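Are you able to produce any protein sequence you like plus the matching backbone structure tokens because I've never seen that pairing?
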Amino acid sequence: MTDNTASMGVDQEEPEEKELSAGRRVSCDGERATVRYVGPVPPTAGLWLGVEWDNPERGKHNGTHGGVQYFTCRHPKGGSFVRPAKVSLGVDYLTAVQQLYRIDKEEVLREEISIDSKKLKWGRIKDRGLESLPSALLGCCEVNGSGPDGEIRETTPNVEWLDISGSLLSCWEEVSAITQQLDQLEGLQLSNNRLSLPSDPSAHCQAFRSIKVLVLNGCELTWPQILQCAPMWPQLEDLCVEENDITELQRPEGVLQSLKSLSVSSNPLVQHSVLSLAALPRLEHLNLSRTGLSDIRFDDAAPGSQTAMFSALTKLNVDHNNITEWCVVDELGKLPRLAHFVCRSNQLVSSDGNPKTANQLLIAKLRHLVFLNNCEITQKERRGAELDYIKMFGEEWLKAGGGSQTSTEFISQHPRYLSLIDKYGAPEEGELKKPEPFALKNQLLKIKFMFPDDADRKPIEKKLPASMVVQKVKGLLYRLLKVPAADLKLTYTSPKMLGTEFEIDSDLKTLEFYSIEDGDQVLVRWS
């Protein structure tokens, strides 16, 4: 029954029983848990804590011992019984600040802080005391509360960014007790917490009055729960709720109306509920990557027309989804301001199987596009893509009636075609491109394998078919390196995006699936 956890490695007094109650957050050997039961567990003597681990793999059972149900867990093996002496109850905000910033003051007070790809610049800080601290980065510092009343405002009054991810806070009221004393606070990182919902969210508006950026990744939140909390954040502009329990999205009625950026990445979304987000009038950036998205329809607009939905949206990310049909891209072409589009690791394939042709189709179909997969589209690239598009489907257009009266079916499949003819003129007979057979298997990519963790190993260049699955690539590397394929970890870089590594995370997908192109580098690491 017992959970054989080691001691914490520091001098620690056993928590008093009055400090322990159901709902209390604790840590044990670096793992976070919520206390669900405090009391005896016969036939053993003494006090036990029944805890539900944030990481269910850490547990052993569902709160049952000897046929008695002492508590319940979301996961059938997410619970354990531990002795009180084995857990830490954490420290208050000020203690955490003093412990952390006494250790490495120069590093934590650097002028530019980067959190989740967001950079906050603070300018020159002459006085490096806690009263001038611009950001408090207390992630995983086991913060459990605010401490003595009013002391936060006196000690760290100028904090603009607060990171208390992975804390031991148990409810929004405890978060509010901290933030209400930080009058300058604009950014709040609360990822990997388990916070019970507030009974009266509007009562905490003042505590979060200045918050513009909020990160709530990995908090096991549903969308209704987020909407329930939303009245607390009246000025919120940037909300990140990745890796939660969000499925069906509902319209944000009267809340989140100032939101400009929203990321719901890595949530299993119900497809068409995405349209509910169109009720956010100022939404400019939307991240739908890794949500299982395969379709989206704007039925309020005819093919080639503009939808009234998402009128402010300029940037959309649909990376790592299940989009296979070009009609989905035509629907996205209805968005009136879509300028940045990220669409890697889907299965949009052109008739010739060439990823570059697929990118040309995306450019031609999305008239307002300025950046594709974070690469700027030049005027020359756009002109070439649109002219090739005209030629590629010219024969089909002629069969559909050509210039006299183009069929409705052709227009629905190629809603931009007629406007491109108006722009460039109809294609000449000799310019028409005949449909080519699917040639993906014949397309060879020149790839350079690099070994960043082995400076003495020279790069290896190979020509591989774009249709080659990653599993076979690893088999090739095994023969070259004598390293088991299961130990190999692959990423790739492209000359188009220097300094960025893209993960190759499935052995069953092809090189083409990951948009790997001729001249890219595959970085090979192993454990």
Summary: The radius of gyration is 28 Å. The first strand starts at residue 25 and ends at 28. The chain has a mean pLDDT of 88. The domain at 91-303+320-328 is CATH 3.80.10.10 (Leucine-rich repeat, LRR (right-handed beta-alpha superhelix)).
